Amino acid sequence: MIPVIISGGAGSRLWPVSRQSDPKPFLKLSDGKSLLQNTFSRSLNLGQPISSVITVTNEKLHFRMQNEYQQVNESGVPCDFILEPFGRNTAPAVLAAAIFAQEHYAADEILLILPADHLISDQSAFSKAVADAVAMAQDGYLVTFGINPEYPETGYGYIEADKERAIGNGYAVKRFVEKPNLELATEYIASGNYQWNSGMFCGQVKTFLEEFKLHSPNVVKQVESCLAVSELSNLQKNKIIHLEPKSFIQAENISVDYALFEKTNKAAVIPCSIGWSDIGSWLSIAQTLPLDKDGNAVIGENILHNTKNCLVYSTSRMVATVDVNDLVIVDTPDALLVANKNQTQDVKHIFERLKKVQHPTSDLHQTVHRPWGTYTLLEEGPFYKIKRIEVKPGQALSNQLHEKRSEHWVVVDGEATVIQDDKVIKLTESQSTYIQAGEKHRLMNASDEVLVIIEVQCGNYLGEDDIVRFDDLYGRN
Question: Could you tell me the residue range of the domain that residue 301 belongs to?
Fold first, then answer.
C-alpha cells in the first residue's frame, strides 16, 4: 500500500496558529505532535506493508514536511514528494500521485488518499476500516470512508449508501450530496443511510487511472502533459517531482469528488466510527481535548479563575482569565484571537481581511522555518532588524549577498563556520563578525550541535527579498 498525503489549504479558520506559509497541518496538539506527523504515523501503523509515502504539497513546504517526517519515521519508510507551485485542488493532486505510483511502483498498488490535517482517535477501528477498504479495492472498487454521523452537521458533505447493494463490509455509493441545511441534515441522520464524507479514499492505482480516463479525460491529459516536462530529482532514497508551473496551471482546478467519485459506477463506501475530525475550527479542536471540571480545554500555561466552557491555547506565554464563559482564546507571539466559542467558523473572515491588506500575520509567524533551521524575529525598527538564527547540525545557509543591508553576527551557542568572500572564519560562543552590504557570505554549521546566532541587520531596506544567491544546498533561486 502507498499512503498519499494531500496537503493543500491554509486553514484560515485556525488563525492565528495557522498561516499561509505555516498552515494547519503543522498545528501541534496536546501530544506535542503536529496533525501532519499524526497522519504520517497513523498511515504506517495500519497493519499493511508500505512501499512508500507520497506527499503532494506546495513546493515551499517541502523541507518543513520532510523534517517533520524525519522526527517520527523510525522505520525509514521512503518519502516521495510531488511539489506543486500552487494549488489546483484535489483531482490533479490525486491523479499526479496515481501516475507517479504506476511509473515508479506498480499498477496494482493500493493508494490510500489521506488529507494531511485530519484527526483520528481510534487507530484500531481505522485499521479495520482500511483492511476492509483494501479488500474492496482489490476487487476493483474505489472506496470512500463514510463517517457515521453523530449529529446533523451542516459543514460536511454527505454520502448516501445504497443499502440494497452490499460490497464486502460496505455498500455501493448511491450519491454524494453537498453540505445541506439543518433541516436536510436532520433528515439524513434520521434515515440511517447517510455518512459524512471524510475526504479519504482507497483504490488500486490502475482503477484510479482507468476511471479518471473514462470520466475526466481532459484532466488526465493536462496532468500527464505537466508530468512529462516536470523535473524529477532524488534525495537519498526519496523521489521528488517539481511540477512545472506553466503546464500545471493548465490543469483544471477541480476536486476529486467532482472529477471522479460523483461520476464513477465503481464507488463504494465503508461506514465507520473512527473518532474522526477534520479539525475545521477552534471549536473542533476544543472537542478533541480533555476538559477540566468547568468544561475548559487548555493547551499551555494558564491560570483560570471562575472560567467556564472556554478553550485557552498558548504555547509561549502565561494566559490568565477572570469571570469569562464560552470563549476561545488563542495566543501567539505576534497575534491574539478572542472569539465566541459558538462562532469560530467566522475566524476565516479575520484571516481574509489580514490577507487582503497583506498583513504579515496572515503569512508567517515570528519564527520562520527554513531548510537549514529557523529564524525568529526579535525586534525591528525603520532601519534595523534583530533575529535569532538557529542552524541544524551539518546544514548551511546559501552563499549570498545583500545589496541594501549589512549584518552583524554574534554566536551565542555552538560553533559557526563563516565564509566571507574567500576567507573562512571559525566563530565560537560570544565571538562575532561583521558583513558589509555587497559582501558575499555564507553561514555554516559543521558541528554535531545546533548553532545559535543573533543577527543584527542595518540598512534602508530590510526585506527578505534583498538576497542574491550564488549557491544553495536546497536548490532555491
Answer: 282-351
Residues 15 and 153 placed together within one structural domain of the fold: yes
pLDDT band at residue 85, thresholds of 50, 70 and 90?
Answer: very high
144, 230 contact by CB (below 8 A): no
- pLDDT tier for residue 3 given thresholds of 50, 70 and 90: very high
Q: Which three cell numbers stand for residue 147?
A: 463517517
* 402/420 Cα distance (integer angstroms): 13
Average pLDDT over residues 83-108: 96
pLDDT tens sequence across 15-44: 999 998 899 999 988 788 999 999 999 999
In the chain, how many domains are there?
3
Q: Residue 19 gets which letter from DSSP?
A: B
Task: Please state whether the predicted TM-score (pTM) of the whole model is above 0.85.
Answer: yes
Q: What b/e sequence results for 302-323 when a residue is b if at least 16 CB atoms lie within 10 Å of its CB, and e otherwise?
A: bebeebbbbbbbbeeeebebee
- CB-based contact 84:94 (threshold 8 Å): no
Shared domain for 245 and 162, answered yes or no, is yes
Q: How far apart are CA 263 and CA 298, in angstroms?
A: 44
pLDDT level of residue 154 (50, 70, 90 thresholds): confident
* Claim to verify: residue 440 and residue 334 sit in the same structural domain: no
User: Which CATH number goes with the domain that contains 101?
Assistant: 3.90.550.10
- 311 near 329, Cβ under 8 Å? yes
Residue 354 CB partners (closer than 8 Å, separation 6+)? 15, 361, 362
Alpha helices in 205-271 (DSSP H): 205-215, 217-228, 245-248, 256
Query: Is the separation of the CB atoms in 194 and 149 below 8 Å?
Result: yes
Among 216, 244, 277, the domain boundary falls at: 277
